[in-house]
Structures are given as structure tokens and as C-alpha cells.
TrEMBL record, chain A:
PANTHER family: ALDEHYDE OXIDASE 1-RELATED, XANTHINE DEHYDROGENASE. SMART domains: Ald_Xan_dh_C. This is Xanthine dehydrogenase YagR molybdenum-binding subunit. It comes from Streptomyces paradoxus. The lineage of its organism: Bacteria, Bacillati, Actinomycetota, Actinomycetes, Kitasatosporales. It comes from the Bacteria. Residues 9-18 have a biased composition (Basic and acidic residues). Pfam families: Ald_Xan_dh_C, MoCoBD_1, MoCoBD_2. Residues 1-22 are annotated as: Disordered. Its EC number is 1.17.1.4. SUPFAM superfamilies: CO dehydrogenase molybdoprotein N-domain-like, Molybdenum cofactor-binding domain. GO terms for molecular function: iron ion binding; xanthine dehydrogenase activity.
UniProtKB/TrEMBL annotation, chain B:
Its EC number is 1.17.1.4. Signal peptide: none annotated. It comes from Streptomyces paradoxus. This is Xanthine dehydrogenase YagS FAD-binding subunit. InterPro entries: CO_DH_flav_C (IPR005107), CO_DH_flav_C_dom_sf (IPR036683), Diverse_Substr_Oxidored (IPR051312), FAD-bd_PCMH (IPR016166), FAD-bd_PCMH-like_sf (IPR036318), FAD-bd_PCMH_sub1 (IPR016167), FAD-bd_PCMH_sub2 (IPR016169), Mopterin_DH_FAD-bd (IPR002346).
Length: 699, 334
């Protein structure tokens, strides 16, 4: 072993990115390329009764206007959000009802403004409440989790518990808003479709396009060389790629569809709002007797997506009586989808806030309360954990943060107008892994070429896979070349569910280890084309495990709440993770810190407001959808334990892309309570809410 | 896109005459707001008269001790200027509190005054807005309006003016200098922006073709203790939820001069005349500050979701008045 794995290797594409030479999906210029601009629906529910394209077609430079009346017919997609321009139905405001293709972006936009659409509008309903008459219990929640799980007699046990917490929390709709909006460039040549797209996985894009256009997969090439973030919203093909392919076929021109930021909130998914009711019943020593987590959320009229926010309660704490329930109402809203740690992020916000309330109720230190409820096996399944070091994360975090000796009394630490407090919350994220293929080739010059259709969405996948390959081959990192981001490469799953590195790394490891064995048996010089080994982890990576496999973590936050304004500033945020073996200290830290920063946004600044009258999200740019800025992030630290777990994959790694967001919002919310004595149960904790809470405290 | 003429003016006269000869013209300075509005379709000028080359890019002392800031002085330069920082700290603080470093480098003093509201309905062509399209209605009144006005709004419009700088200018008794087809004139900063009434499309008292050439900060408020404070959703690059600029002079243990203006509460920077009158001659106590703020905010008419702005503005005013008093009494910034 050369010891590449674990080293803080620099991103291989870093120079290209900072010098602007890395090419993104909109930047694949080819002769005759046209630009397209979609026309969003102005009603939230109804039918298109007419599309007058005359004025648009008269705009100089406009080549074509696609509508549901003239667009190519597509096969029925599995994902109904991709059935674009196929019928007159409008399922939500912002749904695309036409596409203008033009010589330039400016002409396309002007053409889109000139399209006249008439609607037969119907009454819409976009307002979620826990008592909405349309609420139902689905068969399952996202990820295939059963909607309902119950053990024992949770209601009876709750009723007879010595200490009880019965509280409701609300997490608003949230949007992924990656830096690079969703974009695709498509070109048809001799019946072959070539697509450059901004996606977390080109394999899925190719499969969907093949189905929609009735093509065999070998007639389609999809690449995603560089991707400016996705956070889940690029985990599935989005309207841009379907529209680009349609428009390119219809016009015979290469076509780019670069969605404007303002259109994203309606068409590329969002984290659905979640209404939580938590009931915790405990003994006076803090041991949970009953745990009930019930979640109500929304989905669209065309696609059922149920944020699995009660699922982490099946993993976290030992309680003999439990119930976890998901309910959903289908409203005239855009279709929700994955956003960084779907389920865990909002679910752990609620659960970990309720645990803090229980700690306060019982007068038990919140770290200690969690330690006392540490389960021996996964509570819901009864399976043993492959590894679980939550207690160690809590203890290590408490040590690093200086938690010991914390005064538990809320609302008593002042620094002038500031109220100071600290909070803690646990984090968890499941280990996911999927089958993948990869090839490794030894080249005559002494270098090695690793090929795999992994997608580097900004995480450093190229770099870490090269590290895995270098160690498996026993050669220095510089000798590994790597190609990712194209369906021309050996097939591999998407970058999602924090599973990419585990899935791809396993295949790269196997390919390189296999090649090393082959080389060991090879005598003489290499043939001109080199020597190759192909690995396929099917059957291994997707084998059922007898173990419950999850990463865990602990978050600590220190906040100052300004009693003049209600502004909350996070002075320190500290995370400690047990996530298996960390493969690249530099890019891993970046992942953790990025997740924590996003969690800070979830806690304090981010939220999308559904406009009940119009049926759309009000915040549609980065001036109004407030992701944290540098000034919001004062001190942030990520640490990890050296966790060894041989029941994962050859690298011993767990996913790290999402766990950083999971406990952050609760830790900050708990710190705000500790600072102020006010328990705010709706995110984000903006000054209007905090100040109103502070004023209520005084009266 | 809609084609437009582009004229680069070399002098104020060239600019105003170019404006006069192009129907539907707009002056273009830093472009940080106008260009965005053009992309959104809110603005579709027939001509852009580029005024960035006008010789209005200096900060100069006038005889008698006033300070003139040219309309083309960039926000970053204004905020960092030693004379501004020294004599009118509220103005420097207000400009630094706005936007981001990149935007402040591009935005100009004149453009800052003339920026439009960030009301989401104003920026969305698919929704009604009386300011953008008179008579179309107001989507915000019964819609999403947490950020909107609590003072001086009308049935037609509840938008707020987004500038931080203008709030400080108002409290400092600044004046806005204008040049137009009928010559030059100046307007008090406090009177430059309008309340919406039944003409919300008219943000300011500027007349057709007039150009902001500069702002003048008077000698009377030079060197007085002043400060600006802004509450916002994130620590930078966010518009105010509420803000306040205060200029305070104590004489013989009582308030000798008070200039107080609120931001983000109304369609214009809100000069708090009632509060100022109550403060004049009063002992600088917290109780007096609270009383003055309450007198002013008594006129507030909050909407469904923005009642928080009233206690927020009150807190900000009391806090800044108290801090300035401490500074004046102890000679040190607190």
C-alpha cells in the first residue's frame, strides 16, 4: 500500500475550475447551436385552452415554438414531471406549457414573452395543514420505507409515562438551489443523441431518454463532466434535458436549455414542508418508554413523493413502545423531491429538538439523555449495527466544544443585549451502496487508466477514486489517470444518497486489485494497448446485509441572540462524525462543513413561502432565498473518529455527503432555546419570529 | 430581446438632451438594479443613456463645510471616504450595510437613490402590481408581505424602498441635487422619495428627464454623533427588515438636535418627525427614547404578517439613541 487513501489530496479538476476552463453543460458550443426558453404556466391548476405562437414566431431569430399540440410524442415516463408538452393539463403553477427555440438566448426569451397562452383555470389548493381533508397514509415513503411502523402500545405507554413531551414542529419548503442551474445541451446526428447535462448521474438520464424517445441506449451518449452542485435536485433527469432533446430533434439543431434561476423552484423539486408531532414519554431517569413521531407533508397532483421524516426515529433511540407515521396530501403544488438528507434533515430536526425538550423537562444534560437511550440493536429492525459510535461522537464533541460544566438554565447568560446559549443534537444517515462497474488499465508508459461513469458534482469524486485505485494497485497517486462523467464509460450509479464513493470506490478497488493480480502474473513488457481488468460489484454491493448500517454524528452550536433585533448569530458550530474510514481528509472536511453550513441555513435563513393566491413559491432568486453567506458562518469545525467497520465495502467507508446537514438545525435551535428560554418550533429562526418570541417571554 | 439605443454621455447637458431626444429612455449608471429589471422584463427602455462617464465621481468639500458627493461616486468609495467616515458615520455605516462588496463596487450614489423596490410582485410580470402596471392591483397586500410597509402605505401599494443609504441621508438632512431640462434644483432627501398614495408608479419627486447629479451633506450635521443600524435575515447581502439612522446632539444634558429616520418601514425613508419633536429638549433617557419611538410608530398600520416590524423598529431606535448618548456622554464609542 502506498497510503493514498486518507491523504488530503487536492482536487484533480481544481485548476480547471478556478481558471474557468472547466466546461459545464451550457458551454458545449457546436455550429448552429440554438437556445431555448420555456414558458411557465400562470395558473396553478387547469387546462391550456390555446397557445397563440404567431407573435413569438414573428420575433426575429425564433426558430420554433413547441407546445402540447405540436411537440414530439413521448412514451409515458415513469416520472410524470417529464411528460412535457404532452397534454393540456396544468398540474401546478410554473409547469412548462411551451418552449421557444431561437438563434440566441435573447431571441428565445423575447419569443417566450410573446407566446400567448389561454387557460381554463380551476380552483387550486396549495395550503398544507395537519388536518387537511385530503391527507392520507401512503403505502410507503421515499426510499421504500413503510409509511407506518408500530411496536408495543405507544399511546398507553405515553399516557402513563413519568415525563412527557408532546410538541409540534414545522419545517418549511426548502430549495436545493445549486450554483449551476439545471442545464442541458442536446444534439441529434444520424439517429444518435448526444447530451451534455448537469446531472448527478448520466446513466439514469440515458435510460429515461431511451424510454421517452424509443431509442436503444447505445444510440445515446450523455455526459456530465463538471456539475455545479445538485444537492439531490439533479438526481433524476429534469425538464431541461427532455426539452433540449425534443427541441433538437424537432429543429435539427443542437439546442441548449439553460433554465433560469427563477424557474427552478417549480420544476426541479423541493424539500416538501413537514409538519411534525412528537410525543416522548420517559422514566424520570430519562429512559424513553414511548416514542411517537408523526409527519404530515405534501406532494403534487402528478407524483407521490413522501419525505421520510419519521424514519430516523426508527434508528436512533431505544424505546419499547414506538410509532412512526407518514401522512401526505396531494395539492396543486410543484412536485417535491430529494434535497440533501431527505427524511433525516427535517426528521432529525424535530426528533432532536424534542429530545432537548425532554432533557429540559427532566433536568438531565442533553448529551447524557442521548447516551442513556443508546440502543443495543437497531430499534425498529432488531438488527445489530455494523458499527455505531454515536456515544463516542457525543463525548468527543462535548470534550472539544467545552460542554462539560454547562449551566443548563435557559435565558440567563447575557453579554450586553445578547443572550448566549449552547445546544447539541445527534445526527444519523444510512449507509447506501449500489452495484457498479469499472475498468482499470495498465498502460505501457507506467501509468494506469481508471474508467467509470461516476459523476463528480463538486465533491471530489475523481480525486478520491484515484486514491482508492492507487492503493489497490500499490502505486503512487500521480500514476493514476481517471475518466468519469460519461455513459461511454463503464456503468455506475448516480451521486446520491451519500452512496457514490462507496459504490464507485468498490468497483474501482476491485478493478485495480484485479489488475494488480493480473500484472503480478504477467511476464515481459505490456502489449501496446496495455492490460485491462474489468470489475462488476453486482451481487456483492447490492447483497442484503445482516447489519443495520448507518453513519452517526454529533453537532454542537453556540449562538448569540440579539434581544434588540431577534437576530441569531452562530459563533461556533462543531461536528464530530463516525462515518467509517475517511478517504480524503481535505474533500471530506469540505463535505462536512458544506453540510453544516446548509444546516445553518435551514436553521436560520432558508425557506420558501407558498403564495396561496397564486400557488407558487415567492422566493425565486438568491437575493430572496437566503442561503448563508460567509458572514453568517463564524467558526465551523468538522472532526471525525477513526471508525473501523469491515461490514461496509473494501474501503471501509460510509457516506459523508449528507450527514453534516442532519443535526445542525436542531443543535442551533436548541442553543437558541438555551440562550433565550423561548422554544421556537418553526424554521427558519428569522428575526421576526425570534423577536416575537422574545417579546412574548417578557409578558 | 427588445432592442434599445445606447448613448454614452460625456456631460450632464449631453445626458439630459439625449434623454429628451429618446422617448422611453432610462439613465444607466452602475446597472445593478436596472439591468436586472430589464432581464425580468419589468423595465424595457427604448434607450439607455450611460451616465457613468459624467464628471460626477468626486467627493468635495463645499465652502461653509458641507460635503458634496457626486452621483457617480461608487458606493464602496462613498462608504470608505475619510471625510464621510469622519463626519457622517451613519452614512458610511448604511452604505456598508447594503448589498455585497461586488455590488457596492458597481453601484453609484445616484443609482442607489433610484433603485426600485424588491417587492416580489413588482418583479414578477405574471402577477398584479400597481407600481409596475398601474391599475392591475396589489398582489402583496393579501399575499406574501412579511417584508412590506407598516407606515404610510396605501390601498394601492405596500412596497418599501430598499436603500440603506437613503435612510442615512434623510436623517442627516442631506439634499439631492438634480439637473434637468428646466435647469438644476435640489430637494431634501427626506422629500425625495414619495409615499405611494394612488400613484405608486412614481417612486420619487424626480421630474421627467431629470438626472441626479449628486447629494449634499450639510455642515449642520457634520461631525455630530450619528449611527445606522439594520436588522436582516442574514449577516450580509440581505435587505433590511427594519433599520434606523440617527443623528444626535446633546446640549446641556438635553437633546439639542435629533435626526431619526427608519428604513424598510415605508415606501420611502421614514423621517420620524414626531419622535424628533418629542426628543428635542428632553433628557436623553431610555424612557424618553421609548416614548419618542412609540409616538412615531403609533401611526403604524401593520399587515397580517409584518406586525413584528413595529417593535423591531422601536428597539432599533432606542438602541441607537442609547448608544449615541453613551458616546456623547463618555466621549467613547460604546
Amino acid at each position: 500500500m502506498t497510503g493514498s487513501v486518507g491523504a488530503p489530496a487536492e482536487r484533480r479538476e481544481g485548476r480547471e475550475k478556478v481558471s474557468g476552463t472547466a466546461r459545464y453543460a451550457a458551454e458545449f458550443h457546436s455550429p448552429g447551436r440554438a437556445q431555448a426558453w420555456p414558458v411557465p404556466s400562470r395558473v396553478a391548476r387547469g387546462r391550456v385552452t390555446g397557445v397563440d405562437t404567431a407573435a413569438a414566431l414573428a420575433v426575429p431569430g425564433v426558430i420554433a415554438v413547441l407546445t402540447h399540440e405540436n411537440a414530439p410524442r413521448l412514451a409515458e415516463p415513469d416520472d410524470p414531471t417529464l411528460a412535457l408538452l404532452q397534454n393540456a393539463r396544468v398540474p401546478h403553477r410554473g409547469w412548462f406549457v411551451a418552449l421557444v427555440v431561437a438563434e440566441t438566448l435573447e431571441a428565445a426569451r423575447a419569443g417566450a414573452a410573446a407566446v400567448r397562452v389561454t387557460y381554463d383555470a380551476e380552483e387550486h389548493d396549495v395550503t398544507l395543514t395537519a388536518s387537511h381533508p385530503g391527507v392520507y397514509v401512503p403505502e410507503e415513503a421515499n426510499g421504500g420505507h413503510p409509511a407506518v411502523r408500530e411496536q408495543g402500545d405507544p399511546d398507553g405507554a405515553f399516557g402513563s409515562s413519568a415525563a412527557r413531551v408532546d410538541v409540534a414542529y414545522r419545517v418549511p419548503p426548502l430549495h436545493n438551489h445549486p450554483m449551476e442551474p439545471h442545464t442541458s445541451t442536446a444534439r441529434w446526428e444520424d439517429g444518435t443523441l448526444t447530451v451534455h447535462t448537469s446531472s448527478q448521474g448520466t446513466g439514469a438520464v440515458r435510460a429515461v431518454l431511451a424510454g421517452l424517445f424509443g431509442l436503444s441506449r447505445d444510440r445515446i451518449v450523455v455526459t456530465a463532466e463538471h456539475v455545479g452542485g445538485g444537492f439531490g435536485s439533479k438526481g433524476t433527469p429534469r425538464p431541461d434535458v427532455v426539452l433540449a432533446a425534443m427541441a433538437a430533434r424537432e429543429t435539427g439543431r443542437p439546442v441548449t436549455v439553460a433554465l433560469p434561476r427563477r424557474f427552478l423552484p417549480a420544476v426541479v423539486g423541493h424539500r416538501a414542508p413537514t409538519l411534525h408531532r412528537l410525543r416522548l414519554g420517559a422514566e424520570t431517569d430519562g429512559r424513553l418508554v414511548s416514542l411517537v413521531h408523526e409527519v404530515t407533508t405534501h406532494t403534487s397532483r402528478i407524483k407521490e413523493f413522501v419525505e421520510q421524516a419519521a424514519v430516523p426515529a426508527r434508528v436512533m433511540y431505544a424505546a419499547p413502545h414506538t410509532r412512526t407515521v407518514h401522512r401526505v396530501a396531494a395539492l396543486d403544488v410543484p412536485s417535491p423531491s430529494w434535497m440533501r438528507a431527505p427524511g433525516e434533515a427535517p426528521g432529525m430536526y424535530a426528533l432532536e429538538s424534542a429530545m432537548d425538550e425532554l432533557a429540559t423537562e427532566l433536568g438531565i444534560d442533553p448529551v447524557e439523555l442521548r447516551v442513556r437511550n443508546e440502543p443495543d440493536v437497531e430499534p425498529d429492525s432488531g438488527r445489530p449495527f455494523s458499527s455505531r459510535h454515536l456515544v463516542e461522537c457525543l463525548r468527543e464533541g462535548a470534550r472539544r466544544f467545552g460542554w462539560t460544566g454547562r449551566d443548563p438554565r435557559p435565558g440567563v447568560r447575557r453579554d450586553g443585549p445578547l443572550l448566549l446559549g449552547t445546544g447539541v443534537a445527534a445526527a444519523t444517515y444510512p449507509v447506501m451502496v449500489g452495484p457498479s462497474t469499472a475498468t482499470a488499465r495498465a498502460l505501457p508508459g507506467g501509468s494506469f487508466l481508471v474508467r467509470i461513469n461516476a459523476t463528480d458534482i463538486g465533491t471530489g469524486a475523481r480525486t478520491v477514486l484515484a486514491q482508492v485505485g492507487a492503493d489497490a494497485l500499490g502505486v503512487p497517486l500521480e500514476r493514476i489517470r481517471i475518466e468519469v462523467g460519461s455513459t461511454e464509460l463503464p456503468s455506475a450509479p448516480l451521486a446520491g444518497g451519500s452512496s457514490g464513493t462507496a459504490s464507485w470506490g468498490w468497483a474501482v478497488h476491485d478493478a485495480c486489485a484485479g489488475l494488480a493480480r493480473r500484472l503480478a502474473g504477467h511476464v515481459g513488457t505490456l502489449p501496446g494497448q496495455g492490460l485491462e481488468f474489468r470489475a462488476d460489484t453486482t451481487g456483492a454491493a447490492d447483497a442484503e446485509s445482516d447489519f443495520a448500517r448507518h453513519a452517526f454524528g454529533a453537532h454542537f452550536a453556540e449562538v448569540a441572540v440579539d434581544t434588540v433585533t431577534g437576530e441569531v448569530r452562530v459563533g461556533r458550530l462543531l461536528g464530530v462524525y463516525a462515518a467509517g474510514r475517511i478517504l480524503n481528509a481535505r474533500t471530506a472536511r469540505s463535505q462536512f462543513v458544506g453540510g453544516m453550513t446548509m444546516g445553518l441555513g435551514m436553521a436560520l435563513t432558508e425557506g420558501s413561502t407558498m403564495d396561496a393566491a397564486f400557488g407558487d413559491f415567492t422566493e425565486s432568486d438568491l437575493a430572496s432565498y437566503h442561503v448563508p453567506v460567509h458572514a453568517d458562518v463564524a467558526g465551523i469545525e468538522a472532526h471525525w473518529l477513526d471508525e473501523e467497520d469491515s461490514r461496509l465495502n473494501p474501503m471501509g467507508s460510509k457516506g459523508i455527503g449528507e450527514i453534516g446537514i442532519v443535526g445542525t438545525a436542531a443543535a442551533i435551535g436548541n442553543a437558541v432555546h438555551h440562550a433565550t428560554g423561548v422554544r421556537l418550533r418553526e424554521l427558519p429562526l428569522t428575526p421576526d419570529r425570534v423577536l416575537t418570541g422574545l417579546l412574548g417571554r417578557r409578558t | 430581446m427588445k432592442e434599445f439605443a445606447y448613448v454614452r454621455a460625456g456631460s450632464v447637458e449631453e445626458a439630459t438632451s439625449a434623454y429628451a431626444s429618446h422617448t422611453g429612455a432610462r439613465y444607466l449608471a452602475g446597472g445593478t438594479n436596472l439591468v436586472d429589471l430589464m432581464k425580468l422584463g419589468v423595465e424595457a427602455p427604448a434607450a439607455l443613456i450611460d451616465v457613468t462617464r459624467l464628471p460626477l465621481d468626486t467627493v468635495e468639500e463645499l465652502p461653509g463645510g458641507a460635503l458634496r458627493v457626486g452621483a457617480m461616486v461608487r458606493n464602496s468609495d462613498l462608504a470608505a471616504h475619510p471625510l464621510v467616515r469622519d463626519r457622517y458615520p451613519a452614512l458610511s455605516q448604511a452604505v456598508f450595510a447594503g448589498a455585497s462588496g461586488q455590488l457596492r463596487n458597481a453601484a453609484t450614489t445616484g443609482g442607489n437613490l433610484l433603485q426600485r423596490t424588491r417587492c416580489p410582485y413588482f418583479q414578477d410580470l405574471s402577477k398584479p402590481c400597481n407600481k409596475r402596471e398601474p391599475g392591475s392591483g396589489c398582489g402583496a397586500r393579501d399575499g406574501v408581505h412579511r417584508d412590506h410597509a407598516v407606515l404610510g402605505h396605501s390601498a394601492h401599494c405596500i412596497a418599501t424602498h430598499p436603500s440603506d443609504m437613503a435612510v442615512a441621508l434623510t436623517a442627516l438632512d442631506g439634499r439631492v441635487e438634480l439637473a434637468g431640462p428646466e435647469g438644476a434644483r435640489s430637494v431634501a432627501a427626506a422629500d425625495f422619495h414619495r409615499l405611494p398614495g394612488d400613484r405608486p408608479e412614481q417612486d420619487t419627486e424626480i421630474r421627467p428627464g431629470e438626472l441626479v447629479t449628486g447629494v449634499v451633506l450639510p455642515a449642520a450635521t457634520a461631525g455630530l454623533p450619528s449611527a445606522y443600524r439594520k436588522a436582516r435575515d442574514r449577516a450580509s447581502y440581505a435587505f433590511a427588515l427594519a433599520s434606523v439612522a440617527v443623528v444626535l446632539r446633546l446640549e446641556d444634558g438635553v437633546v439639542g438636535h435629533a435626526g431619526v429616520a427608519f428604513g424598510a418601514l415605508a415606501h420611502r425613508p421614514w423621517r420620524a418627525r414626531r419622535a424628533e419633536e418629542a426628543l428635542l429638549g428632553a433628557a436623553p433617557t431610555r424612557a424618553a427614547f421609548e416614548h419618542a419611538a412609540d409616538l412615531e410608530l403609533d401611526a403604524a398600520q401593520p399587515l397580517r404578517d409584518n406586525a413584528y416590524k413595529v417593535p423591531l423598529a422601536r428597539n432599533l431606535a432606542v438602541d441607537v439613541l442609547s448608544r449615541l448618548t453613551d458616546t456623547a456622554l463618555t466621549g467613547r464609542a460604546s
